[in-house]
């Protein structure tokens, strides 16, 4: 089935006429053809968004929000259709596909509510007969560049707050999941977005994404992807003094202390390490285990991981789906080879699964390494696959030091029954999200999401904090004194003494 770009309210082919195919990573099935866009398509989309901006920003925020409410209602009705396409195009198992879409539903409804809660502040002025107040202004044309691992949820994190705040958008979804990007835009079009407010340009990131980042008509780039690509985005944006919000890599850990509920910890580890085949920015790729319980933990964990069923995620009994593509599969296996060279002990997996129908897709067995040292590449670099490293420690303090000693700082989990150690960890773990007695996965749409160090550039998606990405604060002074007041120059000291 062919799909098209969406520019200025029209579904159009790439100006070059070129296309590429979207494939099912579990089966190799061709799901559809999509435009392979270029610079001319980007120019047309940005120009359409710029033309639409003055009129869209003038629409009252509650009216903009009504369109988002309608989009949320449509997404509820089509949840299963979207979920099945998430599984087909991205590969995650169907229960996770439904979760991906539900997160988009939650996010859409949340930001629709923000249309009536885009509060500013008022404050007393330091001068008489003068008012001081603030409110939010939209920024302009937003480039939303999203990854393949949450092809419905993450676009909603960017599109919904950007739109309700009064911005116009050019949306560039990942090349591995373009059909889901088109489906989401179709839904928003049906909900009533005016032409030009949201535009879709499909194609490779090295062409379309780079062109959007460099385009002088784009005021803000919101990017989720690798740290290497995000760094390039930041450098180019800095050249143009352009706003940029980055959500990048992670190297997340689950800390298991000697008083932890090990059965509960195993459940959290299995879900966090092997859910979405480890292809989450919040996936746990490290378990920092107290030496006193490390072996007991492994005795419970390894057999459970070995029993996880691989296969096409449309099968409700499957636990682990495919890696997204051949290049990523090779990268994941490359880290298995790295770990073995570094001297880590391979306990489980470490190979591609090719039996039967699995040979048609990009499947990799859940992999566990033991006796991993904190300085090994396995323990420092983002793998983005079903590979878990067990790092032994002897104290909470050492566990915190190991957790914080990586280039990333997205999420950490700690299992303990000691409230004092729990609060010490909450204080000292330098990650953007911390979970107590739960895995590293489970963000909620109404709360800030983001991390420290090379995970991002300080912004937080989700919740009210996303509005700080997509708006500028405007401060307004209203002087009704009828005379010139020169702020600090005309202040009269209130000391009782003559100045």
Provide a descriptive summary of the structure in words.
- With 499 residues, this protein is α/β, with parallel strands linked by helices.
- The chain has 2 domains: 5-248 and 456-476, 3-Layer(aba) Sandwich (Aldehyde Dehydrogenase, Chain A, domain 1); 252-436, Aldehyde Dehydrogenase, Chain A, domain 2 (3-Layer(aba) Sandwich).
- The chain contains 15 helices and 21 strands.
- It has helices at 39-58, 61-77, 79-89, 94-114, 153-164, 178-191, 205-214, 227-239, 262-274, 294-306, 326-342, 377-380, 396-404, 419-428, 466-470; strands spanning 5-7, 10-12, 19-23, 30-35, 121-124, 130-138, 141-145, 168-172, 198-200, 220-224, 243-247, 252-256, 284-290, 345-348, 367-370, 387-393, 408-409, 411-415, 433-436, 452-453, 471-479.
- Strands 14-15-16-13-12-18-19 form a 7-stranded mixed β-sheet, sandwiched between helices. The chain has a 5-stranded parallel β-sheet with strand order 9-8-7-10-11, with helices on both faces. It has a 3-stranded antiparallel β-sheet with strand order 5-6-21.
- Strand 1 (5-7) and strand 2 (10-12) form a beta hairpin.
- Helix 3 (79-89) crosses helix 4 and helix 4 packs parallel to helix 5 (153-164).
- The chain is globular.
- The N and C termini lie far apart (80 Å).
- The mean pLDDT is 96.
């Amino acid at each position: 089935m062919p799909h098209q770009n969406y520019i200025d309210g029209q579904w159009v082919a790439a100006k070059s006429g070129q296309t590429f195919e979207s494939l099912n990573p579990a089966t190799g099935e061709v799901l559809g053809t999509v435009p392979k866009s270029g610079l001319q398509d980007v120019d047309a989309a940005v120009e359409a968004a710029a033309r639409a901006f003055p009129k869209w920003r003038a629409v009252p925020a509650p009216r903009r929000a009504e369109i988002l409410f309608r989009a949320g209602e449509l997404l509820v009705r089509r949840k299963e259709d979207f979920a099945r396409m998430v599984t087909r195009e991205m590969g995650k198992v169907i229960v996770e596909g439904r979760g991906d879409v539900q997160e988009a539903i939650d996010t859409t409804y949340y930001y629709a509510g923000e249309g009536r809660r885009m509060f500013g502040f008022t404050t007393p002025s330091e001068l008489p007969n003068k008012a001081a107040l603030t409110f939010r202004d939209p920024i302009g044309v937003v480039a939303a560049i999203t990854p393949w691992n949450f092809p419905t949820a993450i676009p909603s994190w960017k599109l919904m707050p950007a739109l309700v705040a009064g911005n116009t958008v050019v949306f560039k979804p990942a090349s591995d999941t373009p059909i889901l990007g088109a489906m989401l835009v179709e839904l928003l079009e049906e909900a009533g977005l005016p032409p030009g407010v949201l535009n879709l340009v499909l194609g490779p990131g090295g062409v379309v994404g780079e062109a959007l980042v460099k385009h002088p008509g784009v005021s803000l780039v919101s990017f989720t992807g690798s740290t290497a690509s995000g760094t390039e985005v930041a450098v180019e944006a800095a050249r143009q003094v352009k706003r940029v919000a980055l959500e990048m890599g992670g190297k997340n850990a689950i800390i298991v202390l000697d008083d932890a509920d090990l059965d509960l910890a195993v459940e959290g580890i299995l879900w966090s390490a092997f859910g979405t085949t480890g292809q989450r920015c919040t996936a746990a790729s490290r378990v920092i285990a107290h030496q006193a319980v490390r072996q007991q933990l492994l005795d419970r964990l390894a057999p459970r991981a070995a029993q996880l069923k691989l296969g096409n995620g449309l099968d409700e009994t499957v636990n682990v789906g495919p890696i997204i593509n051949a290049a990523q599969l090779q990268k994941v296996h490359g880290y298995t080879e790295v770990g073995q060279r570094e001297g880590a002990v391979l306990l489980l997996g470490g190979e591609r699964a090719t039996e039967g129908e699995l040979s048609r897709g990009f499947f990799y067995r859940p992999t566990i390494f033991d006796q991993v040292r904190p300085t090994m590449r396995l323990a420092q670099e983002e793998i983005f696959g079903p590979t878990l490293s067990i790092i032994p420690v002897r104290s909470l303090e050492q566990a915190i030091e190991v957790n914080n000693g990586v280039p990333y700082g997205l999420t950490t989990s700690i299992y303990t029954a000691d409230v004092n150690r729990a609060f010490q960890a909450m204080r000292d773990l330098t990650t953007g999200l911390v979970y107590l007695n739960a895995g590293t996965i489970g963000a909620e749409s109404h709360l800030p999401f983001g991390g420290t160090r090379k995970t991002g550039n300080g912004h937080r998606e989700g919740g009210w904090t996303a509005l700080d990405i997509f708006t500028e604060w405007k401060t307004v002074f209203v002087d009704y004194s009828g005379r010139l007041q020169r702020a600090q120059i005309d202040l009269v000291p209130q000391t009782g003494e003559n100045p």
